[in-house]
Design a protein that fits this description.
Two copies of one chain form a homodimer. Chain A contains six helices and six strands. Chain A is α+β, with helices and mostly antiparallel strands. In chain A, strands 1-3-2 form a three-stranded antiparallel sheet. In chain A, strand 4 and strand 5 form a beta hairpin. In chain A, helix 2 crosses helix 3 and helix 3 crosses helix 4. Chains A and B meet through helix 5 and strand 6 of A and helix 5 and strand 6 of B. Strand 6 of chain A pairs antiparallel with strand 6 of chain B, so a sheet runs across the interface. Chain B binds a DNA duplex (25 and 25 nucleotides) through helix 2 and helix 4.
Chain lengths: 153, 153
DNA sequence: CTCCATGCAAAAGGTTTGCACTCCC
DNA sequence: GGGAGTGCAAACCTTTTGCATGGAG
């Protein structure tokens, strides 16, 4: 009953938890609640927020475990670290569908956006065969409608 | 004699220090060494590295002053904060010529790259008139030639 | 002369680590 | 049963802040 959400359109993907099981990841209560906390798409939690969510379900869990586990998941490539400037790192569980981030410099709200046909970004030719490209991180910085209004008080 | 370097091709720019003077920025010994430490293009120092360089020339300078000053320069738009994942923030003094960053996940080396004609990045149409875009941050992650070699030991 | 910038030191995050103990496979 | 995962607490690293002093304009 927690299985049938997220089974929509996208690349026949599965939940983070399922992918980890399939990988033979050693599964514990802590790891389960962490993976579940990272659950949805369009979520960009800090380690501390993951800890908070995980604590709801498993009060004995420790911060260290959360940090360790997030680092491990990032190393496995199952989540992505995104450094959105101010404060703590954030973790993005959407690794299946390529996307970019849109961040409001006013309120800090972060959204996923998906490239449309007009975008075409490439590593400059000069570098292309000297450097092995793994991924491209793109962040659009600006002001959301609310904050544009507030700015001109 | 510190004036005639950097007077080449680019947009008739000037040193960071000159721009700040022109702006009427209150100038002190500390601020001067910090601005000079941030000097060249293609440099991406952490606050602590700036502190180290500044200390060479002005041993009494304090870390707090470095942090305060870097924050102020960033607010003025004269340098840019770049969050390149691991560890401390880095500061980029190249604000005149648009460029992107190339980071090796092996050794952490960071280089500036300049977009060529093949790249064309736009905020998706869906967002274009809801969001006020200020700047786009692009980071290419991968492995430099040295680290590709080392990886396959 | 008047602010603003500075130094110092303490505190406030955020993250990692060492070690003994637990429990998944 | 063995080794990986966990909790706790302390350490570490980075950055910010309060307050008294000093120097630029």
């Amino acid at each position: 009953m927690a299985t049938d959400r997220r089974m929509r359109g996208a690349t026949k993907s599965s939940t983070l938890l399922e992918r980890l099981k399939r990988r033979g990841w050693r599964l514990t209560a802590q790891r389960r609640v962490i993976a579940e906390a990272m659950g949805g798409a369009h979520v960009h939690l800090t380690a501390d927020e993951v800890f908070a969510r995980a604590s709801d379900r498993l009060p004995e869990i420790s911060r260290a475990t959360v940090y360790n586990t997030l680092n491990e998941l990032a190393k496995l490539g199952e989540i992505t670290e995104v450094a959105l400037g101010s404060g703590a790192k954030r973790y993005d569980p959407e690794t299946v569908n390529r996307h970019q981030h849109l961040v409001c410099e006013g309120c800090g709200i972060t959204r996923d956006v998906h490239p449309d046909g007009e975008s075409r970004l490439a590593l400059p030719v000069a570098e292309r065969d000297r450097f092995t490209l793994n991924r491209v991180e793109i962040v659009f910085w600006g002001l959301c409608p609310k904050c544009v209004g507030a700015a001109r008080t």
